[in-house]
Amino acid sequence: xxxxxxxxxxxxxxxxxxxxxxxxxxxxxxxxxxxxxxxxxxxxxxxxxxxxxxxxxxxxxxxxxxxxxxxxxxxxxxxxxxxxxxxxxxxxxxxxxxxxxxxxxxxxxxxxxxxxxxxxxxxxxxxxxxxxxxxxxxxxxxxxxxxxxxxxxxxxxxxxxx
Amino acid sequence: xxxxxxxxxxxxxxxxxxxxxxxxxxxxxxxxxxxxxxxxxxxxxxxxxxxxxxxxxxxxxxxxxxxxxxxxxxxxxxxxxxxxxxxxxxxxxxxxxxxxxxxxxxxxxxxxxxxxxxxxxxxxxxxxxxxxxxxxxxxxxxxxxxxxxxxxxxxxxxxxxxxxxxxxxxxxxxxxxxxxxxxxxxxxxxxxxxxxxxxxxxxxxxxxxxxxxxxxxxxxxxxxxxxxxxxxxxxxxxxxxxxxxxxxxxxxxxxxxxxxxxxxxxxxxxxxxxxxxxxxxxxxxxxxxx
Lengths: 162, 290
Fold this sequence. Notes:
Strand order of the largest sheet of chain A: 3-2-6-4-5
Oligomer: heterodimer
Number of strands of chain A: 6
Number of helices of chain A: 5
CATH superfamily of the largest domain in chain A: Beta-grasp domain
Strand order of the largest sheet of chain B: 4-5-10-6-7
Largest interface: A-B, 35 and 36 residues
Number of strands of chain B: 14
Largest sheet of chain A: 5 strands, mixed
Number of domains of chain A: 2
Mean pLDDT of chain B: 96
Number of helices of chain B: 11
């Protein structure tokens, strides 16, 4: 059993994008805030903080989840994937490249979460229908692009993979 | 929006979790997936003194056959239930309801038991459990009880769970032969809370008449409700019967009123969604005979 008193700072060690990080978090510190404020990984964005907008979506132990609905102390020991880990040596991932080609972002605020979701979605469902892509995207809010470019970009990559 | 300070307690075993809820009583909130509790904490609608995190309790996971029921551990993630062949084959109503629950990203973390404990009147999982006549299994230190879903929900965000109890599992009756299931809802956006939801289960006899029929309604009253359609047993499993049964159910509900919908609108949803899911369930029950 682990007990952390209110206000106490607890050491949290996580692997983010293959690299070990360690920092301190109060029990109530959201994972999204821990990533940004403590680990200085600013790629993960914070929007609504109640699980609706999807901007803060990260991959934890293989699944895309809301980092604003997890406490940092819950993620102790976890493998976390964020948008910073998608490119390799400065080369965009095929999905990121498709986002650029299809103009699937404008301001880019929602993009990190969508990329993380879509990456895991395509791992589990490599050849989705457009409807399935749109259903997955219903978990993200984008106020710029109108989603068309995002759908096209994801389908581009799905087509390449199949 | 950040949660107010709380003591964080991570239970590694069910006994530890039961000790913790016994210690804190109504000052504790049990944390499973956190898809409902998280927003309430962040918005400070909930300010518990302690959080009892049960995510490390292995006994609360899994999907298994227990007699005539499929038992899902309270911590079973919605995404895992959706991927489960056992759920798809033996609890088709749950499999049909789950795509309406939140989004891909929240189903990855959200749990079946957490949704039932939260007792949102418009939630799909409680509606499916109530429609099927399933049970909620609760444990407390030195005790255990199973409560019929129909008796578990008491109102908006309210259930019969006592502060020193933890929901450990849900029991879903296995589907009978020649039985069809259907689920549908109306929400402002896909994945949002339903303004109205309907779930139907129907068993069709070889002569095409209804051997059994259930219609559950969510988001209409302050808890999932079952329409009494006993008068339709023996009626032909036709679109007309579906329509008549839904009209009867619509006449008997006592709908909630909120800024999203009036009572009259919700009553109309019962008529429309009720007829739709009943007809689909009839078709699916009939298709199994072929």
